[in-house]
Amino acid sequence: MSIHSLPTTTCAEPVPQTALQALDLTVRYRGRAALRGVNLTVADGSVTALIGPSGCGKTSFLNCINRMTDLIAGCEVSGTLSLFGEDVLTDGSNLLALRRRVGMIFQRANPFPLSIRRNLDLPLREYGIRSASERAGRLEQALRDVGLWREVIDRLDDPALALSGGQRQRLCIARAIALEPQVLLMDEPCSGLDPHATAAIEDLIHGWHGRYTVLIVTHNLAQARRVSDHTAVFWLQDGAGTLVEHGPTGALFAAPRHPVTADYVAGRAG
Amino acid sequence: MRDRLSAVAAWGAAGMVLAAFAWLIGDVLWRGLPGLSWQFLVSAPADAGRAGGIASILLATVWILAIAIGTALPLGLATAVWLAEFGHRQPRLQGHVNHALDVLAGVPSIVFGLFGNAFFAVTLGLGFSILSGGLTLACMALPILVRVTGAGLQAVPAELRQGAAACGLTQWTTLSRLLLPAALPALLAGTLLGIGRALAETAALIFTSGYVDRYPGSVFDSARALSVHIYDLAMNVPGGERNGYASALVLVALILCINLATHALARGWQRSMS
User: Fold this and answer.
1) Is A8's pLDDT higher than 70?
2) How many domains does chain B have?
3) Nearest chain A alpha carbon to B181
4) Using a CB-CB distance cutoff of 8 angstroms, which residues of chain A are in contact with residue B162?
5) What's this model's pTM, rounded to 2 decimal places?
6) Is residue A129 part of a domain?
7) Any idea what the CATH number is for the domain that residue A65 is in?
8) Phi-psi region at B14: left, alpha or beta (left = phi > 0; alpha = psi -120 to 50)
């Protein structure tokens, strides 16, 4: 991994408003670029929607932020990526600590095949919270935050896999926010859910403004407009995905600058 | 016409498999049942096995199996975990281990017997003993155990691993709390298959645990496993057929039980995965 020394990423002068900064971020799978040259700055506490057709690097971009790319054989990330001024991509950085600061919600809800309680208890315990009462408190707070507490209060020890699809996804969100992350990465979190469950999750995201920095991949343009303050458009160029346009959601949808964005948001392409 | 011929051939082949199975079981039942009794199971063999029972033989078999599984299970589990979870970091070594397992799985049992004799009995000085036999069987059961357990680990959905990694769980927690519980039925099935193979083994034991049909006093004693007993009664003891068939019936019954248990486990496992 090449590290450019750029003034904006040095630890001495952190930019307080910036949660995330990518500079020339490139992802290669077995030598082939899937995402090339992404420059993106994300403000703390904002919601950014990543939109664009499938296969143009949106998920690859998310996977860099919590280094899920490490799990993929043959995956190579270059460029710089900093989280609140700290470099994310350095080999020596503490991976587990990073993943506790950056929660991730997947396209398919993936609760552990354990009880509802253990789903949150296991990561909290791993996080080093020895006190059972503190864990119980965090569990209740996280489940309340996602609106699941009333629904599961009398069956916390039932298997999590017995929950409905929407409940499972909210449980996974609770599992992520119980660790008190700064950033939440959401990879098409509603693609498998009905409109009712989708609305519940969009409500959650609305409530998070200023609390978490959210990056959400979505193929639902209406959803992007509803939940995000910034939108980043990814597109396939020269065989690799790249960021073609980024700006405030309202402005980007009303007056797209890039021709592919204009076609995409008007439904003429993608 | 050709369709009919091939259909007849296919049905005929399937029928022959069933018939062979029925004939074998029927023959063992027919000739074994008269000699089988409670007394046969609980008394020691006498007159080179012509008279008496198989109590000491059963005991020796259990000891040999216990050593084989007790050795192969931790080794096999650790190998399967390494191959499935860590091996990708050293793809060359992973390839070598996989290759070694394939070769091990294909080695004829008589070769295992000779190896066991040369290595455990002679080089390590364990002599003809339950320990030599058990360790030799462990080498034989290892590939099955690793393969079945590895398949169980690989069948764990990738989303589970991703979820665990994204929550900042350590690899050890992921393995011990999530992956191994999910792969437990496969591990049990692999163990049962390994026991089945070890139970049926004769050639590897003749050279390692030996022929002595007395009650074993320790793992360093030579002892006779059930399959070796059957071989001996059939080949070396005139007049031993009756007890030989009764012993064979006991062995077949044990192996059938293990097969049924494995199938039940595999079914339960598939249900829990879907």
Assistant:
1) no
2) 1
3) A113
4) 68, 71, 104, 106, 110
5) 0.79
6) no
7) 3.40.50.300
8) alpha
Mark yes or no for CB contact B178/A112 under 8 Å.
yes
| Complex confidence, ipTM | 0.84
Find the CB nearest B162 among A68, A113, A127. Answer: A68
What's the domain range around B166? Answer: 36-273
Residues B202-216 have pLDDT tens digits of: 888 888 888 888 888
What CATH number corresponds to the domain at position B57?
A: 1.10.3720.10
Domain that holds residue A37: 19-108+183-265
- Residue ranges of chain B whose pLDDT lies below 50: 274
Structure tokens at A269: 């392409």
Q: Does B163 sit within 8 Å of A71, measured CB to CB?
A: no
Which of B121, B164, B232, B39 is CA-nearest to residue A118? B164
Give A99-127 pLDDT, tens digit per residue.
Answer: 989 999 999 999 999 999 999 999 999 98
Could B166 and A104 be called an inter-chain contact, meaning their C-beta atoms sit closer than 8 Å? yes
- The count of structural domains within chain A is 1
A138 domain residue, yes or no: no
Provide the pLDDT for residue A95: 87
Decide if B102 is inside a domain.
yes
Residue A118 Cα, gap to closest chain B Cα (Å) = 10
Instruction: Give the contacts of A173 (CB within 8 A, at least 6 positions apart).
Output: A105, A146, A184, A189, A201, A204
Count of pairs with CB atoms under 8 A, one residue in A, one in B: 64
The residue behind tokens 């346009």 is A245
